[in-house]
Design goal:
The protein contains 10 helices and 8 strands. By secondary structure, the chain is α/β, with parallel strands linked by helices.
Length: 248
């Protein structure tokens, strides 16, 4: 059980149900790419499996999804141990406390939710103290940016100069940042959602051109708004309910 709560949704999630929902998601992504008017690009689908048990993760993998997102290091780490580090590409996408960095570096292939500069030296320290870090053991990293301006959301301020300083600090510590991450605004106004996603893309493009050429990824868009994120340039979308149904 994650954090004392029973797992939910296991009876409703099957390989066939995930595959059917995955096909729908791919069709929506294709339509959104057509609407964007931009050159063709790959958009990867992440299954967000928080509160679902390892059996559901296995169904997701058998349905053809390789990227798994977890919101908590403890719950995600147990699934990594049960299923295997090499069975999937494991992403930590939830808020990360400094005390959890060691586990995140150990268990996850990516840390997507770096939302404050204080995490950077802790990550660098943990990597330096690893017995055999190796290129394969260094997680990919994304900076989380709060482009919606909502106080309830985590993330760095979407100020270009401030983000450039954070990227510079990461470089000084020997860390390579692969892209940016955001959570769209809680709204039914599509234009507002698109503005938040476009803002992340514009920041990525500007910083990539002049500060950090390794910035390629844009992780943005979830079950209700991923088609809008794709129009605005998403390279990764994070789907939980859309693929797995509502959690009880």
């Amino acid at each position: 059980m994650p954090d004392g709560r029973p797992y939910s949704g296991i009876m409703a999630v099957t390989v066939d149900s995930v595959r059917e929902n995955l096909d729908r998601a791919r069709a929506e992504i294709g339509s959104a790419l057509g609407r964007s008017g931009a050159p063709a690009r790959e958009v990867r689908i992440m299954a967000v499996t928080k509160t679902h048990p390892p059996e559901v993760v296995l169904s997701v993998l058998r349905a053809g999804i390789r990227i798994i997102g977890e919101n908590r290091t403890s719950e995600g780490g147990r699934k990594v141990a049960a299923i295997g580090r090499k069975a999937a590409e494991w992403h930590m996408i939830g808020p990360l406390h400094r005390s959890e960095v060691r586990r995140a570096v150990r268990d996850f292939d990516w840390i997507d939710s770096i939302d404050r500069p204080a995490l950077l030296p802790e990550i660098a320290s943990r990597l330096a103290s690893s017995e055999s870090p190796g290129a394969e053991a260094v997680p990919g990293m994304l900076l989380e940016v709060n482009t919606s301006g909502e106080a309830s959301k985590h993330g760095l301020d979407p100020d270009r100069s401030s983000l450039a300083e954070v990227l510079g600090r990461a470089g000084d510590l020997g860390l390579s940042i692969a892209g940016l991450f955001t959570v769209g605004p809680l709204t039914s106004d599509e234009s507002e959602s698109r503005r938040a996603f476009a803002a992340l893309r514009e920041l990525r493009d500007s910083l990539r051109a002049s500060v950090c050429p390794t910035l390629t990824e844009l992780s943005m868009g979830m079950s209700d708004d991923f088609h809008l994120a794709v129009i605005e340039g998403a390279t990764i979308v994070r789907l939980g309910r859309y693929l797995l149904g509502d959690r009880g």
